[in-house]
Design brief:
It is a single chain. The chain is α+β, with helices and mostly antiparallel strands. The chain folds into 2 domains: about 230 residues, Oxidoreductase, molybdopterin-binding domain (Sulfite Oxidase, Chain A, domain 2, Alpha-Beta Complex); about 110 residues, Immunoglobulin-like, CATH 2.60.40.650. The protein is built from 7 helices and 23 strands. A 5-stranded mixed beta sheet has the order 5-4-13-8-9. The longest helix has 18 residues. The protein is globular. The chain starts with a helix and ends with a strand. The relative contact order is 0.16. The structure holds the ligand Nc1nc2c(c(=O)[nH]1)N[C@H]1C(S)=C(S)[C@@H](COP(=O)(O)O)O[C@H]1N2 and molybdenum atom (MO). Molybdenum atom binds next to loops. One of its GO terms (molecular function) is molybdopterin cofactor binding. InterPro entries: Ig_E-set, MoCF_OxRdtse_dimer, Mopterin_OxRdtase_euk, OxRdtase_Mopterin-bd_dom, OxRdtase_Mopterin-bd_sf, TAT_signal. This is Sulfite oxidase. Its cofactor is Mo-molybdopterin.
Amino acid sequence: MRTPESIRESAYDRRRLRQWLAGEARADGVSRRDLLRLLAAAGLAATAAPTALATPATAAAGIVKPLPDEWFTVRGTNAETRFASLAGTGYHTPVDRFFVRNHTSTPVLDAADWTLTVRGDGLVHGRTVEFSLDDLKRLPAVTRTAFVECAGNGRSLFTSQQGDTVTGTAWTLGAIGTARWTGVRLADVLRRAGLGRHAVDVMPRGLDPDYVTADGTDLGPVRRPLPLSKALDDVLLAYEMNGEPLPYDHGRPVRVLVPSWIGIASIKWVGDIEVSARPLYSPWNTDFYRLFGDAYPADGSAPLTRQTVKSAWELEWDARLDATEHRLTGRSWSGAGGVVRVDVSTDGGRTWRRARLHDAPRRAGWVRWSTDWRPPAPGAHTLLARATDAAGRTQPDATTPNTQGYLFDAVVRHPVKVA
Ligand SMILES: Nc1nc2c(c(=O)[nH]1)N[C@H]1C(S)=C(S)[C@@H](COP(=O)(O)O)O[C@H]1N2
Ligand SMILES: [Mo]
């Protein structure tokens, strides 16, 4: 179901595509053909042929922190949190278990010689302003709890549960973590830099190595534009995670934190923020992070923004349980509002009951829940959990497929074996 906000967001995209057509936008590293394709998708121009989708190259994990097998599954340059390892860890995900999604590798940056450059024709007089970490720390500090969740979290379930073919990292449900982020409001930094009246888009860029696709195309640094409305709302430039300086793998010294939105919006190792009076494009809001496929208009949806609703049991896949009474635990979350209700089934979906919620619904956060279960018989059993959020969104039985496997939100059928 579409929220009024998501309607506004897609209207915004149509407006900026029109601006591009009128020569008023700048598309950085995006081909004219891609823009024409998006225009077609938005119903604004004739159809152009779809482009081949780049798939990320596999490489050794360029991740600094240790990745013990009990806590992580390494997937190329990325590390997925084992959901079972979150049992009993508290509300906030410990940094040592927090998933890492790197397009390339973690750059080891020294805060002492880091600066943030804020520039562009969306600033008054087209200024360029630099901030050191100390400059940022002199602005009012804000602490916010929020999850960071990859748009592709749950992607492998498109295939394993629905039989769909998708490209990208085969995450199960552990491409999410929730932390306490401390930093400054992006709004404060933009105002300090001198925000002009005509600014529309803000594009943070990472200092990690350029992203090169499997076919050898250098797409440049990881970057994705944000509409100014979101940038001024609840976005942080975070320098602490769970009360410690930001770890290397999560963006040290400073990352963008965009609550409730897909992970790619939260640019790590930010070095530069362009503030533009014209709409901006990058491959991360044109080729990637839109929905493509049979069910989508012409060749794509609007750029993805908010995360969907999901639930996960804190159990290994095929976990072995004995036949005694168990307190089973899990977590549920949504990008559209706090989770207010979780229904669970321990008999493959025949009967449902409410799980006990252990946290108040929290926007941009998750809730922990539990349910007691005494397995009725040995053998294979299927556990299900279905969350509902404050906006009334709930998890469907199946997710409409998209070629890149984003935004899986269906109820997951979690197998366990009773001895
Ligand atoms: N500079 C930069 N920022 C980035 C990325 C990246 O590769 N480079 N990956 C993005 C993606 S796709 C996700 S899901 C989140 C992951 O954040 P984490 O590694 O701190 O969990 O960071 C985002 N920010
Ligand atoms: Mo991501």
